[in-house]
Amino acid sequence: MKKTLIFTAFMCCILALFAKGKRDDIKGTYIEVEGVIQLYGNMPFAYEGLVTDDGKHYSLKGDSDKLKEKLIEFTGRRVKVTGYVALPENNDENAIKPYDMLKDGYLYVEEIEKVKPPKKHKK
Question: What is the pTM of this model?
Answer without folding.
Answer: 0.68
